[in-house]
Amino acid sequence: MPKYNKLVRDRIPEIIAENGQTYHVKKLEEEDYLVELRRKAQEELNEYFESSKTNEAIEELADVLEVIYALGQVHGVEPAELEKIRRLKAERRGRFAKKLFLLDVEEGKA
């Protein structure tokens, strides 16, 4: 029997049961949930980095976004509020659309 020991999406146990398989899960306490969400975020980012096709990359980015929304909720912010914060920060500091790569900054020229 394969061991997974990882955070999964809510419907995964249902899907496993529909396939005629038996599973075991436990509900995480908040502290452990945050640890596992952070681990899941890293896992999803790694899967994005390893994707070689655009459609795979997009699927992995959607997974990353789902984990980010869950992390936001742990910290008390809903996806809409997180998006509002992102927009405000983009207005203040910009986005990444210009593809700028900062090489260096000279000190003392104020």
From TrEMBL:
Domain of life from the UniProt record: Bacteria
Record protein name field: Phosphoribosyl-ATP pyrophosphohydrolase
